[in-house]
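Input record (one chain):
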Amino acid sequence: MNLKPSRHASLIAAAGLFAIISAPVLMSPQLPLIGMDQAFAAGNGNGNNKEKSNNGNRGNGNSNRSSNSNSSNNGNGNGNGGNAEFGGNGNSGGGNLHAQLGGLNSLNRNVNGLMNSSDPRMVEIRQFVQAGADLVDAQAALVTAQTNYDTAAATYSTLVNSLGVGGYADTSPTGLQGELDAVNAALVGDPTNPDLLAAQTTLQDALTTINGGTEWTDLTNAAGILQTAGETVTTLEGATSDETLLAALQSAANPNRTVGQEEFDWAKMQLEETLADYLAAE
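The corresponding structure, as predicted from the sequence alone:
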Protein backbone atom coordinates (compact mmCIF):
# COMPACT_ATOMS: atom_id res chain seq x y z
CA MET A 1 0.00 0.00 0.00
CA ASN A 2 1.49 3.30 -1.07
CA LEU A 3 0.45 5.94 1.43
CA LYS A 4 -0.61 9.27 -0.06
CA PRO A 5 -0.78 12.79 1.37
CA SER A 6 -3.40 13.41 4.04
CA ARG A 7 -6.99 13.95 2.95
CA HIS A 8 -8.91 13.17 6.12
CA ALA A 9 -6.59 14.27 8.92
CA SER A 10 -8.44 17.47 9.72
CA LEU A 11 -11.75 15.62 9.83
CA ILE A 12 -10.45 13.09 12.28
CA ALA A 13 -8.75 15.70 14.46
CA ALA A 14 -11.94 17.73 14.64
CA ALA A 15 -14.27 15.10 16.02
CA GLY A 16 -13.30 11.73 17.60
CA LEU A 17 -12.63 9.02 15.10
CA PHE A 18 -15.15 6.39 16.07
CA ALA A 19 -17.68 9.04 17.00
CA ILE A 20 -17.64 9.96 13.31
CA ILE A 21 -18.00 6.45 11.93
CA SER A 22 -20.62 5.38 14.46
CA ALA A 23 -22.98 8.35 14.08
CA PRO A 24 -25.38 7.84 11.15
CA VAL A 25 -26.08 10.98 9.21
CA LEU A 26 -28.90 9.73 6.99
CA MET A 27 -31.65 12.31 6.90
CA SER A 28 -35.15 11.50 5.77
CA PRO A 29 -35.89 13.08 2.41
CA GLN A 30 -38.37 15.92 2.64
CA LEU A 31 -40.62 16.37 -0.36
CA PRO A 32 -44.17 17.21 0.72
CA LEU A 33 -45.43 18.32 -2.67
CA ILE A 34 -44.73 15.26 -4.80
CA GLY A 35 -45.22 11.53 -4.51
CA MET A 36 -42.07 10.28 -2.74
CA ASP A 37 -42.67 6.68 -3.80
CA GLN A 38 -42.76 7.74 -7.43
CA ALA A 39 -39.59 9.77 -7.09
CA PHE A 40 -37.65 6.90 -5.56
CA ALA A 41 -39.15 4.32 -7.90
CA ALA A 42 -38.22 6.42 -10.90
CA GLY A 43 -34.77 7.10 -9.48
CA ASN A 44 -34.13 3.41 -8.89
CA GLY A 45 -34.88 2.73 -12.52
CA ASN A 46 -32.33 5.25 -13.73
CA GLY A 47 -28.77 4.25 -14.49
CA ASN A 48 -27.39 7.29 -12.67
CA ASN A 49 -28.60 6.09 -9.31
CA LYS A 50 -25.63 3.79 -8.94
CA GLU A 51 -23.27 6.69 -8.27
CA LYS A 52 -21.27 6.46 -5.09
CA SER A 53 -18.83 8.65 -3.28
CA ASN A 54 -15.62 9.14 -5.25
CA ASN A 55 -13.83 7.41 -2.42
CA GLY A 56 -16.48 5.05 -1.21
CA ASN A 57 -15.38 1.89 -3.03
CA ARG A 58 -11.81 1.63 -1.88
CA GLY A 59 -11.85 -1.70 -0.12
CA ASN A 60 -13.47 -4.88 0.99
CA GLY A 61 -15.58 -3.10 3.58
CA ASN A 62 -18.06 -1.85 0.98
CA SER A 63 -20.20 -4.96 0.63
CA ASN A 64 -23.71 -5.29 -0.69
CA ARG A 65 -25.26 -6.40 2.57
CA SER A 66 -28.35 -4.83 4.03
CA SER A 67 -27.64 -4.20 7.67
CA ASN A 68 -29.01 -1.82 10.25
CA SER A 69 -26.39 -2.38 12.91
CA ASN A 70 -25.30 0.66 14.89
CA SER A 71 -21.77 0.86 16.22
CA SER A 72 -21.15 2.19 19.69
CA ASN A 73 -17.44 2.64 19.14
CA ASN A 74 -16.56 4.90 22.02
CA GLY A 75 -13.49 3.07 23.17
CA ASN A 76 -15.08 2.14 26.47
CA GLY A 77 -15.81 -1.49 27.17
CA ASN A 78 -18.85 -0.58 29.20
CA GLY A 79 -20.21 1.48 26.32
CA ASN A 80 -20.69 -1.49 24.03
CA GLY A 81 -24.31 -1.76 25.12
CA GLY A 82 -24.09 -5.53 25.09
CA ASN A 83 -23.61 -5.57 21.31
CA ALA A 84 -20.54 -7.78 21.45
CA GLU A 85 -20.68 -11.11 23.25
CA PHE A 86 -17.63 -12.39 25.05
CA GLY A 87 -16.69 -15.85 26.16
CA GLY A 88 -16.31 -16.64 29.82
CA ASN A 89 -12.96 -18.43 29.72
CA GLY A 90 -11.34 -16.18 32.31
CA ASN A 91 -8.88 -14.59 29.90
CA SER A 92 -9.71 -11.09 31.17
CA GLY A 93 -9.77 -9.49 34.54
CA GLY A 94 -6.29 -10.32 35.73
CA GLY A 95 -2.81 -11.43 34.80
CA ASN A 96 -0.59 -10.00 32.10
CA LEU A 97 -2.70 -8.47 29.35
CA HIS A 98 -0.16 -8.99 26.60
CA ALA A 99 0.19 -12.63 27.54
CA GLN A 100 -3.57 -12.95 27.32
CA LEU A 101 -3.61 -11.21 23.95
CA GLY A 102 -1.35 -13.76 22.31
CA GLY A 103 -1.67 -13.31 18.54
CA LEU A 104 -3.60 -10.07 19.01
CA ASN A 105 -0.35 -8.38 19.99
CA SER A 106 0.19 -8.20 16.21
CA LEU A 107 -2.28 -5.31 16.19
CA ASN A 108 0.30 -3.17 17.99
CA ARG A 109 2.13 -2.23 14.80
CA ASN A 110 2.10 0.72 12.44
CA VAL A 111 -0.53 1.06 9.75
CA ASN A 112 1.79 -0.12 6.97
CA GLY A 113 2.69 -3.22 8.91
CA LEU A 114 -0.92 -4.09 9.61
CA MET A 115 -2.44 -3.30 6.22
CA ASN A 116 0.40 -5.01 4.31
CA SER A 117 0.55 -8.06 6.56
CA SER A 118 0.53 -11.41 4.78
CA ASP A 119 -0.76 -13.16 7.91
CA PRO A 120 -4.12 -14.74 6.96
CA ARG A 121 -5.37 -14.11 10.48
CA MET A 122 -5.23 -10.39 9.77
CA VAL A 123 -7.57 -10.48 6.75
CA GLU A 124 -10.72 -9.65 8.69
CA ILE A 125 -8.85 -7.02 10.71
CA ARG A 126 -7.74 -5.28 7.52
CA GLN A 127 -11.29 -5.46 6.19
CA PHE A 128 -12.55 -3.84 9.38
CA VAL A 129 -10.07 -0.97 9.09
CA GLN A 130 -10.87 -0.53 5.39
CA ALA A 131 -14.60 -0.46 6.16
CA GLY A 132 -13.99 2.28 8.71
CA ALA A 133 -12.18 4.36 6.11
CA ASP A 134 -14.90 3.70 3.55
CA LEU A 135 -17.57 4.71 6.05
CA VAL A 136 -16.02 8.15 6.53
CA ASP A 137 -16.20 8.71 2.78
CA ALA A 138 -19.69 7.21 2.53
CA GLN A 139 -21.06 9.51 5.20
CA ALA A 140 -19.61 12.52 3.41
CA ALA A 141 -21.17 11.28 0.16
CA LEU A 142 -24.50 10.88 1.93
CA VAL A 143 -24.46 14.48 3.13
CA THR A 144 -23.74 15.62 -0.44
CA ALA A 145 -26.50 13.39 -1.83
CA GLN A 146 -29.00 14.79 0.68
CA THR A 147 -28.06 18.36 -0.24
CA ASN A 148 -28.42 17.63 -3.94
CA TYR A 149 -31.75 15.93 -3.38
CA ASP A 150 -33.10 18.83 -1.33
CA THR A 151 -32.05 21.26 -4.06
CA ALA A 152 -33.71 19.18 -6.79
CA ALA A 153 -36.88 18.80 -4.72
CA ALA A 154 -37.10 22.54 -4.11
CA THR A 155 -36.59 23.24 -7.81
CA TYR A 156 -39.34 20.84 -8.81
CA SER A 157 -41.72 22.17 -6.18
CA THR A 158 -41.15 25.70 -7.45
CA LEU A 159 -41.89 24.53 -10.99
CA VAL A 160 -45.16 22.76 -10.23
CA ASN A 161 -46.37 25.66 -8.12
CA SER A 162 -45.64 28.08 -10.94
CA LEU A 163 -47.65 25.86 -13.29
CA GLY A 164 -50.68 25.90 -11.00
CA VAL A 165 -50.59 22.19 -10.13
CA GLY A 166 -48.76 22.32 -6.82
CA GLY A 167 -51.95 21.67 -4.89
CA TYR A 168 -52.40 18.13 -6.15
CA ALA A 169 -51.50 15.31 -3.77
CA ASP A 170 -49.14 13.73 -6.29
CA THR A 171 -47.37 16.20 -8.54
CA SER A 172 -45.18 13.66 -10.30
CA PRO A 173 -45.84 13.36 -14.06
CA THR A 174 -47.62 10.05 -13.41
CA GLY A 175 -49.77 11.60 -10.71
CA LEU A 176 -50.69 14.62 -12.82
CA GLN A 177 -51.49 12.40 -15.79
CA GLY A 178 -53.87 10.49 -13.54
CA GLU A 179 -55.58 13.74 -12.60
CA LEU A 180 -55.89 14.71 -16.26
CA ASP A 181 -57.38 11.32 -17.13
CA ALA A 182 -59.97 11.79 -14.38
CA VAL A 183 -60.86 15.25 -15.69
CA ASN A 184 -61.17 13.96 -19.26
CA ALA A 185 -63.45 11.18 -18.07
CA ALA A 186 -65.64 13.68 -16.22
CA LEU A 187 -65.85 15.90 -19.31
CA VAL A 188 -67.45 13.07 -21.28
CA GLY A 189 -70.59 13.47 -19.21
CA ASP A 190 -70.29 17.23 -18.73
CA PRO A 191 -68.40 18.64 -21.75
CA THR A 192 -69.10 22.31 -21.07
CA ASN A 193 -68.24 22.41 -17.37
CA PRO A 194 -65.97 25.49 -17.02
CA ASP A 195 -64.11 24.20 -13.98
CA LEU A 196 -63.30 20.90 -15.67
CA LEU A 197 -62.22 22.66 -18.85
CA ALA A 198 -59.94 25.00 -16.88
CA ALA A 199 -58.43 22.06 -14.98
CA GLN A 200 -57.91 20.20 -18.25
CA THR A 201 -56.00 23.11 -19.77
CA THR A 202 -53.88 23.64 -16.66
CA LEU A 203 -52.95 19.98 -16.39
CA GLN A 204 -52.20 19.61 -20.09
CA ASP A 205 -49.96 22.68 -20.10
CA ALA A 206 -48.21 21.58 -16.91
CA LEU A 207 -47.48 18.11 -18.25
CA THR A 208 -46.14 19.53 -21.48
CA THR A 209 -43.74 21.77 -19.57
CA ILE A 210 -42.67 19.11 -17.07
CA ASN A 211 -42.12 16.42 -19.69
CA GLY A 212 -40.14 18.87 -21.80
CA GLY A 213 -37.81 19.88 -18.97
CA THR A 214 -35.20 18.20 -16.79
CA GLU A 215 -36.49 19.06 -13.31
CA TRP A 216 -38.32 15.77 -12.75
CA THR A 217 -35.45 13.69 -14.15
CA ASP A 218 -33.01 15.58 -11.95
CA LEU A 219 -35.17 14.85 -8.94
CA THR A 220 -35.54 11.13 -9.61
CA ASN A 221 -31.82 10.80 -10.23
CA ALA A 222 -31.06 12.62 -6.98
CA ALA A 223 -33.54 10.38 -5.13
CA GLY A 224 -31.84 7.25 -6.43
CA ILE A 225 -28.38 8.49 -5.52
CA LEU A 226 -29.58 9.44 -2.03
CA GLN A 227 -31.10 6.02 -1.47
CA THR A 228 -27.95 4.24 -2.64
CA ALA A 229 -25.79 6.47 -0.44
CA GLY A 230 -27.94 5.69 2.58
CA GLU A 231 -27.77 1.95 1.90
CA THR A 232 -23.98 2.17 1.61
CA VAL A 233 -23.70 3.90 4.97
CA THR A 234 -25.98 1.31 6.59
CA THR A 235 -23.90 -1.54 5.17
CA LEU A 236 -20.65 -0.01 6.37
CA GLU A 237 -22.09 0.66 9.82
CA GLY A 238 -22.64 -3.09 10.03
CA ALA A 239 -19.10 -3.74 8.81
CA THR A 240 -17.70 -1.51 11.60
CA SER A 241 -19.94 -2.71 14.43
CA ASP A 242 -18.66 -4.22 17.66
CA GLU A 243 -20.00 -7.60 16.57
CA THR A 244 -17.95 -7.45 13.36
CA LEU A 245 -14.86 -6.36 15.26
CA LEU A 246 -15.23 -9.16 17.80
CA ALA A 247 -15.51 -11.74 15.02
CA ALA A 248 -12.40 -10.30 13.34
CA LEU A 249 -10.47 -10.36 16.60
CA GLN A 250 -11.52 -13.93 17.28
CA SER A 251 -10.19 -14.92 13.84
CA ALA A 252 -6.89 -13.21 14.66
CA ALA A 253 -6.55 -14.65 18.16
CA ASN A 254 -4.54 -17.72 19.08
CA PRO A 255 -6.32 -21.03 18.49
CA ASN A 256 -8.55 -22.20 21.34
CA ARG A 257 -8.63 -18.76 22.94
CA THR A 258 -11.74 -16.65 23.30
CA VAL A 259 -11.44 -12.86 23.12
CA GLY A 260 -12.59 -11.33 26.39
CA GLN A 261 -13.69 -7.83 27.27
CA GLU A 262 -10.25 -6.58 28.27
CA GLU A 263 -8.63 -7.86 25.09
CA PHE A 264 -11.48 -6.42 23.03
CA ASP A 265 -11.12 -2.97 24.59
CA TRP A 266 -7.36 -2.96 24.04
CA ALA A 267 -7.68 -4.09 20.41
CA LYS A 268 -10.39 -1.56 19.71
CA MET A 269 -8.18 1.25 20.99
CA GLN A 270 -5.30 0.04 18.82
CA LEU A 271 -7.48 -0.10 15.73
CA GLU A 272 -8.86 3.37 16.36
CA GLU A 273 -5.29 4.63 16.16
CA THR A 274 -4.61 2.50 13.09
CA LEU A 275 -7.69 3.84 11.31
CA ALA A 276 -6.73 7.42 12.17
CA ASP A 277 -3.27 6.84 10.68
CA TYR A 278 -4.75 5.10 7.64
CA LEU A 279 -7.10 8.00 6.91
CA ALA A 280 -4.41 10.59 7.50
CA ALA A 281 -2.08 8.86 5.04
CA GLU A 282 -4.53 8.68 2.14
